[in-house]
Design goal:
Layout (H helix, E strand, L loop, with lengths): L2 E8 L23 H16 L1 H8 L14 E3 L3 E6 L2 E7 L16 H6 L2 E3 H9 L5 H16 L2 E11 L6 E11 L6 E9 L1 H4 L2 H14 L13 E6 L4 H6 L4 E4 L10 H4 L6 E4 L2 E2 L4 E2 L3 E4 L4 E2 L7 E3 L18 E3 L4 E4 L5
Helix pairs in contact: 1-2, 1-7
Length: about 350
Amino acid sequence: MSMWKLVKLNFGRSPAHFGELGIGIEETSDRVRSDALFSAWVSVYARLFGKNAVEELLQRFPCEKQQEFIPPFRISSTFIYREVRNETIYYLPRLLKFPINYPNNDLAFFKDYKKLNYLPLQLWQRWYQGTGFNEKADTEQLITYTNDYNKAFRKDKVPKIAVDRVTRATNLYHTGFVQFEWEKNPAGLYFLLQLSPEGEKLADELKAALYLLGEEGLGGERSSGAGRFQVEWLDICEPWDKVVKYKGTHHTVISLFWDSHITQNFLEGAAYEIQERGGWIANANLRRKMVRMFSEGSVFKEQPQGKLVDVTPVKLLDDKGEYKFHPIYRSGISLSLSIDIKEK
């Protein structure tokens, strides 16, 4: 039986830069996706416990060469939380399927519904694990849900100067930062962690690596002090305990999800969006291979599992097709919740 944890990342006054493929350095996301969190976490784990330890850890995850392995842990992407009047409000993504009781004739409020990308947990649970959509009450509150979410953070662009090392010429550019609310209603990021029985033995090591990651920072612009956070490692309690144990007819991923063997039967009745993932390799000045993953909020009839995907650039291979140094992986290991949805 697996163990669930809820991990809160409190950034306090520290701004953060969370890059996304295609948005440029002038923009920033308000959260970190599961593959980026996994990579940063494992990278710090390697520095803390050594090369052999991290290789042994990665060998426990399913990939192309070992597809039937059970991962020691699964993580969700990070999502926003807010502290409001001594209550913590957690947000989850709106699904790509309509909730139960969603009206067939929705032209009056469909635009507002589509703008609602994230839902407070209490509402999410009612929509997808409870009685469903309440047309009278929910239609009046759609804009409020979005406005409340946006109060958790603000985004700013900070001017910076780049100096050419040869000519000493200067160039002005801007970098986007996200600042989470830290005064009246403190906010931050959280993610869910599911540990297998074998993974429970690694809990202390994983926690130590995450604390170190908090000191070093998550995301870009870390040399400027961005992305630093404090960790709260919590046991699952109500209402999360009911959410993770619920048994419904479908499954929604709350992480990114990748698998090389996706069948037509698996996609039957599914609703999904595809997210392209790329980026640079630290200290190598090379881009990783591009990979396309299912995004958070995608819905499937079968429970998705996922794998690690090898994204090592071709330039890092020698003439024999072997790696010049260690292979580079991206996590497509999925974490999902069971739900009910409106049938056609």
